[in-house]
Write a structure and sequence with these properties.
Blueprint lengths: L1 H20 L3 H24 L5 H22 L1 H4 L10 H35 L2 H33 L6 H19 L3 H11 L4 H5 L1 H4 L2 H18 L3 H25 L3 H27 L4 H20 L2 H22 L1 H7 L1
Helix pairs in contact: 1-2, 1-3, 2-3, 5-12, 5-13, 6-11, 7-11, 7-15, 8-15, 11-13, 12-13, 13-14, 14-15
Organism: Streptococcus suis
Membrane topology: Multi-pass membrane protein
Keywords: Cell membrane, Membrane, Transmembrane, Transmembrane helix
């Protein structure tokens, strides 16, 4: 069953990436939606029939994946469905694809271990209840990141169709518009936390740690929407791998310090936000060097705003924290609009 799932999933993702690369975003979304809708419908059918076997639940999941795969093949039939004589085997291209794919695969593994190492350290040092508090806040942040990552899918095909000489200027424009949105998004934290405390009063303690982790949506959002997309467009896969490996090694070091040498749950939680800032900052500096632009000052200002947010959200009551951060955000927007009048005027 595992082998069938791997076959269906990998082939389906090949079709999805093919559609995304050719800017057929709606079609790729339909494949993913079809998969989950079919699974839910078949699962509800089993439950309605009084069947609760986990084995059959796995089977209907695999069926949904295969049906969505066949639908994807149908959408890409002009490219995929041909006689075998139509296809040519190019060993040099295969080797090149394996090299690029290996770098990206290892980068993804290292990226997961950046947070995963800290979570493992917390689990080993403290009890399950404490680990659950951090996991809940990370799960909420990851849910938000799912929506942010979905937007990044649209940007990559746009960059591939843009002249290389125009990409540095386009980066500055997108960044100028993106960062106010991401930093403004932090304002939603205060009503969100209040609503969750009312809805889940038993988890009030764990929601306090949400203030320390929530800014990762800014750094991860910028990384997913802009930096990683640009690095891939410029074929800088090794840079992505280098940044993620270095961040992973730093994660191991900070985990040892904050969970075993000087055990402190607050510092361990804060290290997650710091690590993702470090990865984002380093990747952007290396990308900016390639684009021949300067973004270090802007990145540091954004980091300072994130620190102010953490202080306001952690140390102050919700309303007071909201007002403090709102004032800081208004000042930031006033400076941004003042220094980019032409861009914001065209946006209106």
């Amino acid at each position: 069953m595992l082998s069938l799932t791997l076959l269906a999933t990998n082939l389906r993702f090949f079709v999805i990436y093919l559609l995304q690369t050719t800017n057929l975003i709606k079609e790729s979304a339909r494949i993913m939606i079809l998969d989950r809708v079919l699974y839910i419908c078949l699962l509800l059918g089993l439950i309605a029939g009084g069947i609760y076997s986990y084995k059959l639940m796995i089977v209907v999941d695999v069926i949904g994946r295969f049906i969505s795969l066949f639908y994807g093949i149908y959408l890409c039939r002009d490219i995929i469905v041909h006689k075998l004589t139509f296809f040519k085997f190019d060993i040099s291209e295969v080797i090149d694809n394996i090299k690029v794919g290996s770098n990206l695969m290892l980068s993804n593994v290292a990226s997961m271990l950046v947070i995963g190492t800290v979570r493992l350290g917390i689990e080993k040092r403290w009890d399950v209840a404490t680990f659950g508090k951090i996991s809940l806040t990370l799960s909420i942040s990851n849910l938000i990141m799912t929506f942010i990552n979905a937007v990044g899918i649209v940007i990559f095909p746009m960059l591939k169709r843009t002249e290389k000489s125009e990409l540095p200027e386009l980066y500055v424009k997108i960044r100028t518009l993106l960062m106010p949105v991401l930093l403004g998004f932090l304002l939603l934290f205060f009503p969100l936390r209040t609503a969750l405390m009312i809805w889940l009063p038993k988890y009030a303690d764990s929601l306090l740690y949400m203030a320390l982790i929530f800014p990762i949506s800014v750094f991860e959002g910028k990384m997913a929407l802009l930096i990683n997309t640009y690095l891939k467009a410029f074929r800088m896969e090794r840079t992505i791998l280098f940044v993620n490996l270095l961040s992973m090694l730093l994660s191991v070091l900070l985990t040892i310090v904050t969970t075993f040498i000087f055990p402190n749950l607050i510092l361990a939680t804060l290290s997650i936000t710091f690590l993702l800032f470090f990865r984002c900052f380093l990747a952007e500096i290396l990308l900016a060097k390639s684009l021949e632009i300067s973004v270090a000052l802007d990145a540091l200002i954004e980091a300072i705003i994130a620190v102010i947010f953490i202080f306001a959200a952690w140390a102050l009551p919700s309303l007071a924290g909201f007002l403090v951060y709102l004032v800081i955000y208004i000042i930031y927007m006033w400076i941004k609009i003042g220094s980019n009048k032409s861009l914001f005027t065209r946006l209106k």
